[in-house]
Structures are given as structure tokens and as C-alpha cells.
Amino acid sequence: MPWQLPPLVRITDRTAELGALEGHRERAAAAGYGTLAAVSGLGGVGKTAVALAWLHGLRERFPDGQLYAHLGAQSAAGPVTPEEVVGRFLRALGVETGQIPTAPAERVALYRSLTADRRLVVLLDDAATAAQVRPLLPGGRNVTAVTSRWRMPGLTVDGCYAVYLDPLATEAAVELLEVTLADDRVAAQPAEARALVELCAGLPLAVRVAGARLAARPRRHITTMVRALTEERGRLEALAIEGDHNVRAALDLSYQGLSPNAARLYRRLSLHPGPEFGSTVAEAALGDGDAAGPLDLLYDANLLIDAGDERYRFHDLVRLHAAEKAEADETAEARASALRRIADHYLATATRAEEIVDPQHRTLKRNYGEDCEGDAPVPEELGEDTDSALGWLESELPNLMAVIRVARPAGFPTVAWQLADALWPLFLRRKFYEDWRAAHREGLLAAEELRDAVAECRMLTSGGMGELGMGDHERALEMFERAARTFHDSGNALGHARTLNYQGLAHQRLGRLDRAAELFTRAAAELPSVGDRRAGGLARLNLADIALERGLWEQAVTDADAAHTTLNAAGDTYNAARAATLLGRAHLGLDRHDLAEQWLSTALATLRGMAAHYETARAVESLATLAERRGRTDLARERYREALNLYSAVGRSKSAHAEAVRTRLGRLPDPDARPPAGTADMDGTADTGGTADTAG
User: Fold this and answer.
1) Given a cut of 70, is residue 368 above it in pLDDT?
2) What is the spatial distance between Cα 488 and Cα 492, in angstroms, rounded to a whole number?
3) d(CA 199, CA 66)
């Protein structure tokens, strides 16, 4: 069960608001409806703190989990799209990445279905519009809280209850200051304490920031802070945006009290384009020296928010303030260098993850900034475990996509296409199709800007594979043909030969088997002669797949055997296992049961350890057919069910293969009955949604 809510923070004098929220929930529950409430108010007034206090208190009544999303209305990268958030929520609710629909409406429908019978709470923090919120409302009688700087009358039609937070009354603000200081200065200087919180305009963020500065200086009188804040507030009036000048004044005083390294880190972290970050990103931003101490200072000064798991984020007002200080106190060169180091850190770590997960992917040279002096920056520690590397890529995907979006406008387009390239193993296995498409579109623009034909073709071919996965086969073919023309015009015979495989796959998905076979045959002949035996082996694998689709069993054996030999020699264990599956299926079509079992078992032993659920399903399905033919009904039933689970795990529960398995499973007699004679359908219908690396 997901428990995603951030930790509680201390609040004061919000009893009336909490009571109103809970009263609304009780009324909605009594009427049999879900609860929707929006908490709005000025930046720094404590909207999130109030929502957290309410929702954390409901945990016993809603034991099925807590979902949280920061919607980024004030984010430098812009608001988060609803479909992205729904995707995260579905994964948190236990849906395998491959099962998440690509169409936004289908995602929302699945989300509502999964939450209809659950008892959970949802916090949608920092919302931009009602339209952004509406697709994120769960089904059933659950509780949703929305926070925003803006009132959201558009949610009224959805039964939303609105709470507007005013700044704290003076006495409540003084109480918050006293809690923050945790000493006797407020009691000893009550008038000065009142003056200080009045200068903070009762905004909890400003009170906490000012209090944190005083807490770090236990011998300083509150009077000193009052005097400084009075002067600072006057100086900042011209710079203030509505409602936050008091926060800015408090932030300026805290900034002035930071050590040089902490102040430098504060400024440079504002350049981070993603929603949150860890200590290694802080190291990259700082550039020299240990970031641990400065990071702790920023957190202790209430300038960073604990995002959990040793990660941090800015309050949006604090990030804006830090960005202002970066603009004022850092040179343009220093800002560009810090952003490049942050981007290089992500690029180096993503490249390392790519090497762990998919060592056969032809990693092109990576170009890092001048600060690296030709060497790669130190990546995040990932170990050698495939699941850990994939997990890092998935968890950091919002940050990685943010880097891709800012890289080209920031002046380093190489990062945009190279980072998109490094994400190939994640996109291939976890099917983040919308991000796949967006990353490669931006990467293609970057490659075009650089006039780098090799990079352009990589973005076209890898991006085209994503289009195949999304079912846009014509668009994929256009991209592959454009890559072929580019390679031809630049005299790149190897690159051009590789596109033959890609074009063949598109024609195969479009049902043009003759044209596909022609292209695969050319690829099998040309690729070894221009130096890529492995890609030639993939072409033979694709030919074997077409032969199976046509029921040409002997031809399939010949092509699959050649593919297996070549791919095995090249060290491509994944595709060699796929070739073994095809060999097993071809022998099964020829009723060579022992050979079929040998090859299918060999394939299965490899594929199970590679998180390759679709290909594992194909091997298991064929072994189920073999068991059925041998009269082992119980084993056949068990394997057909396993195959269905595997197809479901990669979002192929409605594919032709899965439907065929259901039909065969339904035809199986009772365990004690004699199995029927006859042969199962082995026409090997091509999958229309997979994106296995079958093109090189």
C-alpha cells in the first residue's frame, strides 16, 4: 500500500479550518459521496501544512494508503501533466508499468476503477487549475485535498469545499515563533516577539525562517532581528510580488547569515530543473568542496523541505528567492557551469544505468562539460544490479525529462539527445511511451541544431521504435525512412544497412510481410559485410519470426538457428534467448517435441532473469502448448495461466497472443478427463505492441 504523504509539520491556530474540513468530510460520507476540499491562500501561509494535518489524522479511517503529488504550479519546468501523475499513482497502487494505458482517458478510467473500492486519501499539492486536478480525483468514497495559491471555483461542480487560509493571528504567530526558538526569548521579550511576527505578516513560512535564524544564534536578541527585518522589508518593497514581500525579507536575512559555501549551494540549487534532488546533485551543483555541511545548514534554516528518503525540494517562494540571488550574485558563466554539472551528473548516471541494464545497446560517445576535463563526472552509486539501475532511471525520470527539456535552450544540446539515448533501456522495458516520444522529439531538435547526422539518426530510429510501441506504425516508418536517407546522403553504409531492420519491423506491423521479408533479407546480407554481424543476426531472427507467422516451420528453423549462433557469439544473451524461443516454436510446429522442449527451456532459463516479461510469456505459452500435446493437462493449464499473467504484466492482456491463450485454456478438459487430440494453433501472429530490440 502506498504511504506517500510528506511528514507532518507543526501548525498553530488552525483549529477552525481543520474542523471545517472534517465536518465537510463527515457530511459527504453520510451522504455516500467522496470528499473533495481545496485549501487556498498566499504563498507561505501554510496550505500544505494544514492539508497534511487533516489527512494524516484520517489514517485509521482510510487504511488503504495515501497518494501525494506536487503538481508544480510554481515549478520552473511548468505544471505536471495529469496523465503523468495518474501514471505515478497507478504504479503506486501496484499496476505494472507495462499495464498502464498510453491513452490519458484510459489511464484515468483505470485509476478510478482501482480506487473505487479502496479507502485512501489523496493530496494534490500546488495545483495550477481545476482542469489539472479533475483527472486526478479518485473513485469511490475517498478523500482528496487540493492546495493552490488560487481559489478554484471550477471544482465547485465536483462538490468541492473551499477553505481560504488567512495569515496567522498575532498570538498564534508568536506561539509558532516560540516553538521554533525552543528557548525563553519569546517569554522574556514579548513585545519584540509581537513586533517580529507582525513584520512577517503572520505568514508561517516567514515566521519559521526568521525563527530558524534566531535559533541558530541563541545569544541574539529578538530586537536585533526586528531592526534588521524592518530595514530589509523596506528595501525589498519594489521587488516584491503581491503577498510575499515579508517572506522575501526574512529569506534575505537568512541568506545573509549563511556561510559562503551554503550561500553558493543555495543559489546553485535553484538552477536544478526538476522537482527534487539528493545530496549527489548538491555536490554537482556546488562543484568543489563537500556539500553535506552546507546542505544541512540550508535544511536547518528552513530553506529546504525534507522530501523523504534523504531528498530535498524548495518551497516555490524560496526557490524564486534563490534564483534571484543566483542572478544577482553568480556570473552568467558560473550559472551555466553549475547547470551543466547538474546535467552531466544525470547524464553520467543514466549512461551507467544503461550499461548495466543493456550492455548491447550501442552507446555513442558522451560529451561532458569543460569542468570534467574530458572525464565523466562521478555518477550515482548504482552497483551492478539490473533492477536497481532500472529503479534509479524510473524514480529519477521526472528530473531526467526536466534536464532534457532545458538542455537545448541552456546551450548544451548534446545533453538533450545523449540523455534521451541513455534512457533507451528504461523506455524499452517499462514502456513510458509519452516520455519516450517527448524525449526523442527534443533530442531530435537538438541533433538537428547540432547538424549531427549520427545523433539525428539515433533519435529517429530509437524514437521510431517508441512510435511502433504506441501503435503509430506509419509515423515510425516515416522516421526510419528519413534515417535511411540521412545515412545514405552522408555515405554511412553501416548506418543505412541498420535501418533496413527498422523499416522491416514497421512493414511487418503494417501487415506487409513480403516487403518486410525483403528488407530483412537485405539486412541479413549487408550488415555482416559492413561490420555488424550482431545486427545481421537480428535480421535473421526477424526472418524466422515471419516464417513462423506464415507456418514455414523448416525455414523458421534455419533462420532462427543462424540467428542464435550469431547472437550468442556476439554476447547478446537476450536476443539469443529470443532466437531460442523461435527455434523451440518452429520445432513444435514440426512435432519435434524433445527439440522444442530443449530450446524453449534454454530460452526460459535466460529470460526469467532479465525482466523480459513479454518474451518470457512467449516461451511459457509455447511450453504450455507442448504440455497440452503431450497430454499433460495440469501442466498445460498452469503454464497457460502463467503466460496470461506475464502478458498482463506488460500491458498485453488484450493482445492476439493473450486471447489465443485464453481460448486454449478454456478448451482444456477437466483434470481427470482425457485431453483432446489435435494440434494447437502455432501461426505465431506478430505482436503489434512490443518494442523489443530486433533492429540492432
Assistant:
1) yes
2) 6
3) 37
